[in-house]
Specification:
By secondary structure, the protein is mainly α. The protein contains 4 helices and 2 strands; from the N terminus they run ββαααα. A two-stranded antiparallel sheet has the order 1-2.
């Protein structure tokens, strides 16, 4: 009988690659793939959330600016470009404004200019645009 302890054995786990079935994936490969998928999931979640915010801001501009959906999208996009802010940031600011908050000055000026172009204000409206106003409730 051998009384010596058995040395620990290294265990390796492998999986077969879906895209390349002749390639075995090591545990390290699997961890990397999992990390990559988790990062992609985070980006997709962020995109879906951002998209919902933009859609809601388009709806707010429909009502507040009395313009159509395409024009509302253009107003958001132009405001984003003129202020050098991400579209979802502008959308969040518009939603906060629609709920009674205030707009940062730079956003307000760019939004007013874009709105006046869509409402038929012409180029002269860019220098002295009228501020967007919340609609006043009317009695039925």
């Amino acid at each position: 009988m051998n009384d010596q302890p058995t040395p620990p054995r290294a265990m390796a786990f492998f999986a077969i690659s879906r895209s390349d079935p002749l390639r075995l994936l090591s545990t390290t490969d699997l961890v990397r793939e999992n990390d990559k998928l988790a990062e992609e999931r985070t980006h997709l979640h962020r995109a879906v959330t951002s998209h919902a915010t933009v859609d809601q801001a388009i709806g707010a501009l429909l009502v507040l600016g009395r313009i159509g959906p395409e024009d509302s999208w253009d107003v958001l996009r132009e405001t984003s470009q003129h202020t050098n802010r991400k579209l979802h940031v502008i959308a969040e600011q518009v939603l906060a404004f629609a709920q009674g908050g205030t707009l940062p000055e730079e956003t307000r000026v760019a939004l007013e200019a874009a709105l006046s172009r869509r409402q038929g204000g012409g180029p002269e409206a860019e220098t002295d645009p009228a501020p967007p106003k919340a609609p006043t409730p009317t009695a039925p």
